[in-house]
Amino acid sequence: MNITATLVSILKQKQADKLIAFFDEYNIVDIATIVETLDVESVLYIFKTIDAATAGKLFSYLSNERQYELIQKFSGEEIRNILEHLYTDDIVYFLEELPANVVKDILRHTDSQRRDLVNQLLSYPQDCAGSIMSTSFVELNQYNTVEEAMALIKHAGYQAENITYCFVLDYKDRLLGIVSIREILFAPEDVLINDIMHTDVVYVNTRTDQEEVAKLMGKYDIQVVPVLDESRRFVGVITADDVVDVMEKEATEDMHKMNAVGPVEGSYLKLSPKDLAFSRVPWLLILLVAYSISSLVISANEGITTLYPALILFMPMLMDTTGNAGSQALAMVVRGIAVDEVTAKDWLKVLWKELRVALLCGICLFVVNMIRIYYFSGNSHDFQFALVVSLTVLIVVVIAKLVGGLLPFAALIFKQDPASMASPIVTTFCDSLSLLLYFTLAKALL
Amino acid sequence: MITKEQLHKLINKRDVTTLKQIFSQYNVIDLSEVVAQLESDDILWLLRMLEKNISGIVFSYFSIEDQQRLIESFTKGDIQTVLNELYSDDINELLGELPANLVKKVLTNATADQRKEINLLLSYPESSAGSIMSTDFVELKQSDTMKQAIAKIKRQGQVAEVITDSYVINDQRVLVGAISLQHILFEDDQTLVGDIMEETVVSVSTHDDQEEVLRVMRKYDLMVVPVVNDDHCLIGIITIDDIMDIIREEVTEDIQKRAAISPTTESYLQTSVFQMTLSRVPWLMLLMVASIFTEFIIGRFEHSLDKIAVLAAFIPMVMGTAGNAGNQAAVMIIRGISVDDLTVKDSFKVLVKECKVSIIMGLILFAVTFARIMILPPNASLSVALCIGLSIMLSLFNANIIGGILPIVSLALKQDPAAMAAPLITNIVDIVSLLIYFMLAIILLGI
């Protein structure tokens, strides 16, 4: 019997002892995926049966919609139990999505100390370090001996999300240093924490953007980073597993932007058709109207196209090749900037590199195109014609690569995300340019 | 921060005390950036002078080029020290990038134990869990008491990459449980590991692709995941910091593939012009030649263009809009597959959703196109405007469906969905859009 069927049959017969055994046997994340699909009555039965700690864990792995639905059905006592067993950052994550009056209602069930903390966390803008940090950690005093520290870790560590590092604070909660559990474990018992702690600590501010946090943790290869507030007081920690989610989200956002998709929250299958349509339609409209330039160029050159109708045949090829070449350069540079391999001061290097790459690419394409059109097209053995098309390709590839390579820097200057220089924008721009060049060359050479 | 000149002076004066002080004061990673700029001789002296574990860390943060330069002048002793101090996954990464002659130099100078471990790691396929795992972890037995467990952690922890999570194995080395240091410290000294360990341990197999490892760690919110072989024996661990590097690599690769660039391994500024051209030109050429189809279509309908010249002026708009729309749909599906567990069995849902989305978008685009042609030059007659508006609506519909389904087809064929490059989708969408455009012109405008 598979795991879903097992759970369903246990629930049908209301076998409490089997249900508890079931939660012991399977991974809570897998169980949560199944609970997500059950009817509310069964879920409520589960929460009544299992112990509070497991209930808290299960709750934190459910979707926001499910959590909201359950909270409305829970008694005050049940809410209190759940909240008591959730990490503060999980509570915040859950509350952030709820309407303000519901939040207030739920917070009534927490003790005042916890409530202050949650309110504090809720006040940080989304996407900054303060909103993703965890507030359960082990704090030590610099005058603790290693033995005392061990006792504190034994006591506090059970509640803490992570004990890889302990944080040494002064009486005003300012961060003096950090010490790893490894160092505490290996040091003699009578040594002072002050003597083994590290004072040169990499930290972030509550308002540091979460993308910055991810970059910093990547650079220094650290799994835990302390968060300080404006007065340099220690308020929380961010662990690498939180940052992984941030990185994936940022990557999605970047890739969406690069393809001219507006910001959307949520996974594809859960988003409504309306949300999906509105995330995509604005740029399509702008670009559609921008294509008027291409249309104008073409109709202004009707004279030459009636004389040489074959010119129209190669328009799509020209446009596509330009767009592709520009997008390639754009993708390389935007990604380079995103992972910090390329910085604003490298623009000249990029320009020089793209110029050389473009010339090489352009020459290859020129040769292939000459052969193809001269020997294998409807206009075979018309050297002049083949030259016009191929020469346009060559020049336009160079321009497209330079535009694609440099536009991200323009975005940097205007303090915009380089990824917002979507490749369709570059394509549309270069398309118009390539048509203009195409017809100018045609007039000159044919 | 200290400058490379200051460091160089101190090294020249052989000022051991000041140097040691500097290394205990500053962040080692920042320092290794400065050290890397020094001459090889200076670095060698510095690495030999510093405590072994510190010089190991400094070395591990050098770029592969700098590491290579140093290994060339390393003695046998230096090599053994470095191998001792580096974590096995770092060693593996280093050897994977070194030229063959240097790999040989490292292996011949390694101790027998070191050699055995390295050979094991090198035998796994690239980007599999086996190739990125570290073999330095803490292992416990079910029969250990908490006291014994702590003693074991203290002993094995000297070399282990992670000590906050220990893994429990039986006599056949089969992974049977996991236990966190928090639990061990919290319980009584005499409690047995077997009694309190977590028995449902999420693990990955050595053959699993690193993307699968990433998916598992994200799903279960893990900082460390154990790696097992086919017999479920524990042979390594993968930590979250390795995964962070992998996300960067995978995303870069996806973005490059999407832009029709063969993936390059080095950073933008380090890749040579020739390599970069090679990674881009084949696709450009292929797609350029593939335009034969659009040429053929336009050629067949040339007489229609002769009659209503303005039709040609709107070819870029119809083609461009459809291409853009197709790629919007494609990128959403590609990200959905890599992050949100979109699978082949969701094809129908995607299809239905894209249809609904297309209806909303199509109506809006139709209205705007119509208005644009009536208002902005070049203008056209009412019937031509209608024809173009309808073409855009229909080709958008087609583009969204092609863009939404192709990545899933690619997945079903066991290919990377991101390999559905934007230009490829554009090309396919272009052909259909032009056909729709001309067919509609013939039907509606009677030419």
Structure, described:
The complex is a heterodimer of chains A (446) and B (447). Chain A is mainly alpha-helical and 446 residues long. Chain A is built from 24 helices and 6 strands. Chain A has helices at 3-12, 16-25, 28-35, 40-49, 52-60, 64-73, 76-84, 88-95, 100-107, 112-122, 129-132, 146-156, 181-186, 193-196, 210-220, 240-258, 273-290, 292-300, 302-307, 310-313, 315-338, 347-376, 383-413, 423-445; strands at residues 139-140, 165-169, 175-180, 204-205, 224-228, 234-239. Chain A has a 3-stranded mixed sheet with strand order 1-2-3. In chain A, α21 runs antiparallel to α24 (423-445). The radius of gyration of chain A is 31 Å and the shape is elongated. Chain B has helices at residues 4-12, 16-25, 28-35, 40-49, 52-60, 64-72, 76-85, 88-97, 100-109, 112-122, 129-132, 146-156, 181-186, 193-196, 210-219, 240-258, 273-290, 292-300, 302-307, 310-313, 315-339, 347-375, 382-412, 422-445; strands at residues 139-140, 165-169, 175-180, 204-205, 224-228, 234-239. A 3-stranded mixed sheet of chain B has the order 1-2-3. In chain B, strands 4-5-6 form a 3-stranded mixed sheet. In chain B, α4 (40-49) packs antiparallel against α5 and α21 runs parallel beside α23 (382-412). Chains A and B meet through α12, α13, α15, α16 and α17 of A and α12, α13, α15, α16 and α17 of B.
